Amino acid sequence: MKVAVVGCLHGELDAVYAAVARMEAAQQCKVDLVLCCGDFQAVRGEGPDLNSMTTPRKYRRLGDFHRYFSGERVAPYLTIFVGGNHEAVNHLWELYYGGWACHNVYYLGHSGVVRFAGLRIAGCSGIFKGYDFRKGYTECYPYSDSDLRSSYHVRELEITKLMQLSQPVDVFLSHDWPQGVLEHGDYAALFRRKPFFAPERRTLGNPGHARLLATLMPSHWFSAHLHTRFTATVNHPGGQVTHFLALDKVGRNRQYVELVDLPERGQKELSYDPEWLSIVAANHFSHLPLIAGLQPTPVPLIAQADLVANVTNTDFQKGQFVALVEALSLQSAATAATLPQGNAEEIMLDDALQAVPNEAPSQPPVQQQAAAADNNTEELLLDDVPEPAAPSEVAANNAEVPLDGKSQTVPAATSATATTTEQIPLDGKPQIVPSIATTTADQLPLDGKPQIVPATATTTGQLPPDATNTEQQQPVATVTPEPTEPASSGGCDALPAKLDGDVAEGGGV
């Protein structure tokens, strides 16, 4: 099976498809799949997409994608892509789990795994920056300049989810290279072409991808980002081999597309990966956009095995991934709540698929209306665009700093106990019942803010039946108080503590 691998696309879909067609004619073959390694620039039109594209303003242009999105043109090949560091980030955030960017063009997500012709294709979008690696996703439209850059930085969450894959991976797509892959290729020839890479020989690339390369050991790994062609052969312990290929950006006299022979093990249809579904579903509620520092939940193999029989026949063309993930997640959360403490990660998802509707929206149809075209073919020269300096580390713990920035000491609540004859069990030992602190209107100071006063313990023998509270009496807690719902608290105390020790930055463009 012939697969076309593309480097940095930079919005040049027409040029890529034309080049693939020429290669088909020259080699007398049929290309079944196009894989793009980032900087796809899926800009649907002027406005939010163009304003959210992470390129210098003088290089921002519509490119070719909007014509495929509007239906003016149709992608002639099934195309799968990952995100890079020059993308319409608001569009790709709408497809966080992956999905159809337009008819016949599929985004693999911030991290994702799909299957085609029996091959397992995994990928991770973005590039590495150590100061954002252990953060969550807090960016939203309208994006600041800082948010535009941090939105495409790879998070440790995505790496950890992919690390849970236990079944073999055939193809892995990324934008930046795995750190250390230079040592397995002709780096001397690379440094002659790109001498400014030489000082970064040991640190060039993504350390998170290096972990994935060593753990998943895919048969093929395709990357881009550094605007040059480079090959390497990585020999793993146990005899597994990974063939690494990085390609240039689209442009005249550049090596940006290459045909690769991959084995064909099944029907040439795109489908979900059962194991990845179980991993995503188990962690769906643990990485909402505003939550930072959470680690994925391990998924046992038994849950993955149960999913295989139910998901392999899922019609990918009619499926809606987010709806499927949410249905699985609701079931996994309910199941986890019934498991004994310490086994909450053993989420059984085999019954969750029954809740997924059979009828779901198909991939976007081809629309007939055409969008306005921008014929500017200026090449994007982004090799020397500087990255912002890493922000200074904050020494204080977020959980210890209130909103006004002043330290605040909260006194511990004093609890009282009460014992009556009705509470003494058969063994003769008194039972300790904590009382609940109460607040009355008489306790409000002049500033109108409530004051918490510890309750005083008493027994039924100490209070006459007709006794009432007076101004001199403190509020009395009954022996068996009615349970009350604690007020939910928010603010900085609810935020997780900041993690220390950022990973060192890797090189990149």
What's the layout of helices and strands?
Blueprint: E1 2-6, H1 13-27, E2 31-36, H2 48-51, H3 65-70, E3 79-81, H4 89-94, E4 99-102, E5 105-107, E6 111-116, E7 119-124, H5 145-150, H6 156-163, E8 171-174, H7 187-193, H8 207-216, E9 220-223, E10 230-235, E11 241-246, E12 257-261, E13 270-272, H9 274-282, H10 301-311, H11 321-338, E14 417-418, E15 433-434
Parallel strand pairs: 1-2, 2-3, 3-5, 7-8, 8-9, 9-11
Antiparallel strand pairs: 1-12, 4-5, 6-7, 6-13, 10-11, 14-15
Helix pairs in contact: 6-8, 9-10, 9-11
What does this structure look like?
- With 509 residues, the protein is of the alpha/beta class.
- Helix content is 20%, strand content 13%.
- The protein contains 11 helices and 15 strands.
- The strands form 3 sheets. The protein has a 7-stranded mixed sheet with strand order 10-11-9-8-7-6-13. A 6-stranded mixed sheet has the order 4-5-3-2-1-12.
- α6 packs parallel to α8, α9 packs across α10 and α9 packs across α11.
- The protein is globular and about 50 Å long.
- The C terminus is likely disordered.
